[in-house]
Amino acid sequence: MNVLSISMDTDAAKWKAAIKKDEMDWLQGSDLLGQVQGVGLKYQIEAIPQYFLVAPDGTIVFNSNRGNFELVETKLEDIF
Question: Cβ(72)–Cβ(62) under 8 Å?
Fold first, then answer.
């Protein structure tokens, strides 16, 4: 399993500082376009954090737009 965080930041320095401060040692990405453009717009980011489960074929199998990780855990239990 892989974890990827996509930031909705628009300031690269603040984004990189947060990664270091929060010790997020997994894959990170950002288009630095914020929540209402780019990736944020494409995936209709409504809350931060927002969680997606993506199948190996790239299909989004779950989207928690409530920022509730317990919903992700429940979905993973259903899948496995």
Answer: yes
31 vs 13: CA distance, rounded Å:
13
The tokens of 64 are what?
């928690």
pLDDT digits (tens, 9 = 90+) for 41-73: 988 887 788 888 888 898 988 888 776 788 888
Residues 6+ apart with CB under 8 A from 24: 5, 18
With H, G, I as helix, E, B as strand and everything else as coil, classify residue 4. strand
pTM of the model as a whole:
0.69
Rounded to whole angstroms, the Cα distance separating 35 from 43 reads 10
